From TrEMBL:
This is Signal recognition particle receptor FtsY. It is a peripheral membrane protein. GTP binds at residues 446-453, 528-532, 592-595. Involved in targeting and insertion of nascent membrane proteins into the cytoplasmic membrane. Acts as a receptor for the complex formed by the signal recognition particle (SRP) and the ribosome-nascent chain (RNC). Interaction with SRP-RNC leads to the transfer of the RNC complex to the Sec translocase for insertion into the membrane, the hydrolysis of GTP by both Ffh and FtsY, and the dissociation of the SRP-FtsY complex into the individual components. It is an enzyme of class 3 (hydrolase). Residues 613-626 form the SRP54-type proteins GTP-binding domain. It is found in: Cell membrane; Cytoplasm. Residues 15-41, 48-57, 64-89, 96-105, 112-121, 128-137, 144-153, 160-169, 176-185, 192-201, 208-217, 224-233, 240-249, 256-265, 272-281, 288-297, 304-313, 320-338 have a biased composition (Basic and acidic residues). Belongs to the GTP-binding SRP family. FtsY subfamily. CDD domains: FtsY (cd17874). One of its GO terms (molecular function) is signal recognition particle binding. It comes from Pseudoalteromonas peptidolytica F12-50-A1. Residues 1-338 are annotated as: Disordered. One of its GO terms (biological process) is SRP-dependent cotranslational protein targeting to membrane.
């Protein structure tokens, strides 16, 4: 065991330091979470107060507007009545003048026209009667028109009020969209360096401490310059006596600042040594990623030789198996559909090269000694099982080996298979959809490119085949063609998709979909979300907003928050699980693309470090290649020698 302890000391993974570092890291995470929660609570209280004040102000405005409009309507009615009365009076005067003129004109005519005039007078009386009747009818029509106009005006007022509220909501949505677009634009700009940043993320922790110290030193120098400038400006404004006093005070301040600067410089020199030690300690944490990346880089270089040897051997075995399977498939007249267990074994071929059956060469024909444990430890780290889980496995195997007095490496191989099976067994918990939850809401989250949308399509098809009604919410409104991609899945399986235009507010889309699913009595609602980096707080807060919006319709929603992670990301998946879990509280994990990576060992780290169930695994492109996670089948396929 001496070599093992020396190897672990060289890596810097002392158990006491590690426990202290983990405790400090957990305390810091808890503190940051508490601060975020307190800030959110304060912001929520302020928001609610602002909303109440805004609602009261809007109600007052509506009331005042209604009063003004009512007064204007009354004035308009009075004005119209006065105008009608004046018009009637003028008409009557004109009519009387006309009648007088007509009477005088008719009187000048011959008396023979008297009877005609009498007839015309009678006709005029009839006409006046008809005009009055017509006027009354017109007045009645005008009254009915006025009532219709009043009703339309009231409807218009309600419509305008609704439009104003909708405009305000749209403005708020636009504002939030703009903020999100800006945040995502910043994220897009940052995305170009995202892969490098992730590789350097752990090293960046150490670098940030040095940069903060340098920033503080620069800020102190800037502060000293600002203080000297302020001293000169104040000295210029002050009197000659005050200038001398101020100059002496500023000189004293400058002296003190210089002394502080000198002290800080000396402290900085000392700190550089301390920071180097701290950086080395932090670098040990960073080395979990850095060494993995370096190991991957070195392994990649080494793999040109090692993988040519190991991969060629595995590839040869895989090739022979594939050729045999292909030959059998070609030989059959009616090929049978390949079972999932067979596809699982085939999908895990790359992962098996590093773990599972790939361990056979390490254990076969060897005795149990320090060299065996060192080789095993190296293989586990190379397979991306992670330092913490690797140490746990090594310790358990070491204790078991001492306790059981195992004779050779092959016995230890069987014991290791059992230990790894126990790790995965804790994460085996299939997703069960209760019948009393309608709709049962599944919120899909994850970073860009892990296969969320494809996973949604496969899940929807599976639920549909189980006789459940399904609806999809196209909440990824940022990525180009994301909405269309989900709609294609919906059309392919005759599943309704609730969507808005690209760039719309994700929370609004999910809210609309939730309402539609409730109205249609849908069994399962699956909500897609935009991919986001787990280290971007503003984007993570948007996920929290979506969850809060859902709770307005159902306090228990979302019922399942499922994180999709790409097995090919290796230990970066650990960071994703941790930060997404802090943001929205994960209840399930789907691990995709196990068929395309040799880093499938990350599943053991996820199962070991988190209590989040692994719901599904994906080992291929087909719909049937996404299946419920069963630890026994996974271990059996991984350790299969076929």
């Amino acid at each position: 065991m001496g070599k093992k302890n020396k190897f672990l000391s060289w890596l810097g993974f002392g158990k006491s330091d590690k426990a202290q570092q983990e405790a400090e890291r957990e305390a810091q995470l808890a503190k940051e979470q508490a601060e975020r929660e307190e800030a959110e609570r304060q912001a929520q209280q302020a928001k609610e107060a602002a909303e109440r004040a805004e609602a009261e102000r809007q109600a007052q405005l509506v009331k005042e507007q209604a009063e003004r409009e009512e007064a204007e309507r009354e004035a308009q009615l009075a004005k119209e009545a006065a105008e009608r009365e004046e018009a009637e009076r003028q008409a009557q005067l004109a009519k009387e003048a006309a009648e007088r003129e007509e009477a005088e004109r008719q009187a000048q005519l011959a008396k023979e026209q008297a009877e005609r005039e009498e007839a015309e007078r009678q006709a005029q009386l009839v006409k006046e009667q008809a005009e009055r009747a017509e006027a009354e009818r017109q007045a009645q029509l005008a009254k009915e028109q006025a009532e219709r106009e009043e009703a339309e005006r009231q409807a218009q007022l309600l419509k305008e009020q609704a439009e104003r509220e909708e405009a305000e909501r749209q403005a708020q949505l636009v504002k939030e969209q703009a903020e999100r677009a800006e945040a995502e634009r910043q994220a897009q700009l940052a995305k170009e360096a995202a892969e490098r940043e992730e590789a350097e993320r752990q090293a960046q922790l150490a670098k940030e401490a040095a940069e903060r110290a340098e920033a503080e030193r620069q800020a102190q120098l800037a502060k000293e310059a600002a203080e000297r400038a302020e001293a000169e400006r104040q000295a210029q404004l002050a009197k000659e006596a005050a200038e001398r006093a101020e100059a002496e005070r500023q000189a004293q301040l400058a002296k003190e600042a210089a002394e502080r600067a000198e002290a800080e410089r000396q402290a900085q020199l000392a700190k550089e040594a301390a920071e180097r030690e701290e950086a080395e300690r932090q670098a040990q944490l960073a080395k979990e990623a850095a060494e993995r990346e370096e190991a991957e880089r070195q392994a990649q270089l080494a793999k040109e030789a090692a993988e040519r040897a190991e991969a060629e051997r595995q590839a040869q075995q895989a090739k022979e198996a594939a050729e045999q399977a292909e030959a059998e498939r070609q030989a059959q007249e009616k090929p049978k559909k390949e079972g999932f267990f067979s596809r699982l074994k085939k999908g895990l071929l790359k992962t098996k090269a590093n773990i599972g059956s790939g361990f056979a060469s390490i254990f076969k024909g060897k005795k149990i000694d320090d060299e065996l444990f060192e080789d095993l430890e190296t293989q586990l780290l190379t397979a991306d099982i992670g330092v913490e889980t690797t140490m746990k496995l090594i310790d358990n195997l070491t204790d078991a080996a001492d306790r059981k007095q195992l004779k050779d490496g092959e016995a230890l191989y069987d014991l290791m298979k059992k230990e790894m099976s126990e790790i995965l067994k804790t994460a085996e918990q299939p997703l069960e959809i209760p019948s009393d939850k309608k709709p049962y809401v599944i919120l899909m989250v994850g970073v860009n490119g892990v296969g969320k949308t494809t996973t949604i399509g496969k899940l929807a098809k599976q639920f549909q085949s189980e006789g459940k009604s399904v609806m999809l919410a196209a909440g990824d409104t940022f990525r180009a063609a994301a909405v269309e991609q989900l709609q294609v899945w919906g059309e392919r399986n005759s599943i309704p998709v609730i969507a808005q235009h690209t760039g719309a507010d994700s929370a609004s889309v999910v809210f609309d979909a939730f309402q539609a699913a409730k109205a249609r009595n849908v069994d399962v609602l699956i909500a897609d979300t935009a991919g986001r980096l787990q280290n971007k707080d503003n984007l993570m807060q948007e996920l929290e907003k979506i969850a809060r919006v859902m709770k307005k319709l159902d306090p228990d929603a979302p019922h399942e928050v499922m994180l999709t992670i790409d097995a090919g990301t290796g230990q970066n998946a650990i960071s994703q699980v941790k930060l997404f879990n802090q943001a929205v509280g994960l209840t399930g994990i789907t691990l995709t693309k196990l068929d395309g990576t040799a880093k499938g060992g990350v599943i053991f780290s996820v199962a070991d470090q988190f209590k989040v169930p692994i719901r599904y695994i994906g080992v291929g492109e087909g719909i049937d290649d996404l299946r419920t996670f069963k630890s026994d089948d996974f271990i059996e396929a991984l350790f299969s020698q076929e």
